[in-house]
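User: tokens in, sequence out, please.
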């Protein structure tokens, strides 16, 4: 069914384009939300991604995964959005991240909303590098090339992101512990 919709959309069928949009909207938002600060910003990235995808639909190879092809467009659009707004962000000081221990059972208790909330609280560059490396599977070299810095910076940003997430997790865990004592 998906390939049929894509074929129809390639031929300019407006109904097929709308069905494709609806079919992949939730997926597109889930990817964009990991790279942006707000839902509004994610909506902007998703809509820009759809515009790019539909204008380049003729470049999509029917035999490959449309979802993977579209995910790459969403990620690139998110990075473009970050670059466009980068002048508004404060310069980030990079520190060495120290490893801390944590209770692995407590990690299992995290909800999707809590995880996304912690990710959204990260500075943009840390969130983008974390998503690209840990979730999307990019190498540090690829991340560096995509974002315009050395792969060693990607490693440092990733370590810093993990450190910040550990700190946020510890605070969240302490709040939970205080709530359960009462």
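Assistant: Sequence out:
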């Amino acid at each position: 069914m998906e390939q049929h919709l894509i074929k129809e959309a390639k031929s300019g069928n407006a109904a097929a384009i709308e069905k494709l949009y609806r079919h992949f909207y939730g997926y597109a938002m889930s990817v964009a939300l990991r790279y942006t600060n707000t839902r509004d910003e994610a909506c902007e990235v998703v809509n820009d991604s759809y515009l790019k995808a539909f204008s380049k639909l003729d470049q999509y190879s029917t035999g490959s995964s449309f979802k993977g092809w579209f995910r790459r467009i969403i990620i690139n659009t998110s990075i473009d959005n970050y670059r466009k707004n980068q002048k508004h962000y404060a310069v980030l000081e990079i520190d060495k991240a120290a490893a801390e221990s944590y209770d692995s059972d407590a990690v299992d208790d995290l909800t999707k909303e809590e995880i996304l909330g912690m990710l959204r609280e990260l500075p943009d560059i840390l969130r983008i590098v974390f998503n690209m490396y840990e979730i999307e599977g990019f190498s540090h070299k690829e991340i560096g090339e995509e974002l315009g810095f050395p792969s060693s910076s990607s490693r440092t940003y990733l370590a810093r992101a993990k450190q910040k997430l550990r700190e946020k997790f510890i605070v969240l865990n302490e709040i939970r512990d205080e709530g359960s004592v009462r």
